Structure formats: structure tokens, C-alpha cells
Input
Amino acid sequence: MTWPADCGQTNSARGPATSLASDWTSAAENKINRQVTFAKRRNGLLKKAYELSILCDTEVAAIVFSSRGRLFEFCSSSSMLKTIERYRRCSHHASESMAPTNDTPTCYQEYLKLKTRVEYLQHSQK
Output
């Protein structure tokens, strides 16, 4: 969303009113700035997911992987795996072209492999 230049709004960090799109369309050039931006936006995203789940009484799941492979997640239900399974059932059910399958054990094995891989990456980067 962009604001017209003549709307009179200013932001001291950006100077006179500028397009909001110009703030996020290009990656932060400095590695430290990029990391700070990632941390702030990640926290903002997870906070919004939490607020949506509380205010609208919805089931929300958010999964974020950093550029270094670190996992950040939020799940409003008791189990991320159950939420992912619910998503898969709904997405498969929505597309009638796909035959319903019962691959829950396969999904769980995939989940365990990914979880192990993420833990390995987290420990190897310390």
C-alpha cells in the first residue's frame, strides 16, 4: 500500500512521506540490518498470528525458517503436527482431482526427519 506524496504524513526515519513499498521491496544490504529486520518482522508475524488466534478464535500455525536454517514456529493448537495434518486433509479435499490417501505415518516420519535436521543445523551453527 502506498500513500500519496501530498498526504502530509512524515516519518522521521524516512524523511518526507514516501512510498511504504520502497521500504520493503529490496533486501537490506547490510548483513546486520538484514538480521535485525528479520528478527523484528518475524516477531511481528508471530505476534499477529497469536492475536488472530485469540481475537477470532481460530486455529493458526506459522512456520518460519531463517536464512541459516533456524526454525521459528507458532501454533495456536496443542500440536503443530495435528494442524499440518488438518491442513493437508483440507487442501487434498478441496482439490477433488487428488484421491484421498491415508499417509499419516509417512507425514509423521517426514516431520521427525525435518525436526532432526533443524536441530542438527541449529547445533552446527553454534
